[in-house]
Write a structure and sequence with these properties.
With 97 residues, this protein is α+β, with helices and mostly antiparallel strands. Helices cover 30% and strands 23% of the residues. It contains two helices and four strands. Strands 1-2-3-4 form a four-stranded antiparallel beta sheet, covered by helices on one side. It starts with a helix and ends in an 11-residue tail after the last strand.
């Protein structure tokens, strides 16, 4: 019985941090309707992001790791249809007891 309880606690310890870093849902449109990578990269540059260290395509977003116009390191998600910035999804925080 203890091993089952320990396994559940361990699984929770692994799953909760992963959920805390979940990607936002940027669009439900098919990838065929997305802006091209060249177009979104031009939009990203026009918004003042530079020194892009990583450019990724997730299930529903374009995502970058780079620097903003103030040279701060940032992780930013973009709607691939509009090119707008999408705020990251934050996990629900349970109320304090």
């Amino acid at each position: 019985m203890r091993s089952i309880a320990f396994s559940l606690v361990l699984a929770g310890a692994v799953i909760v941090p992963l959920a805390a870093h979940a990607n936002p849902t940027c669009t439900t449109e098919p990838k065929a309707k997305w802006m091209s990578e060249e177009a979104i990269k031009a939009r990203i540059a026009a918004l003042g992001y530079h020194q892009i260290r990583s450019f990724k395509t997730t299930e529903s977003c374009y995502e970058i790791y780079g620097s903003d116009k103030d040279n701060k390191l940032v992780e930013v998600y973009f709607n691939p249809i509009t090119g707008d910035i999408v705020p990251p999804e934050l996990p629900a925080v349970p109320p304090a007891k």
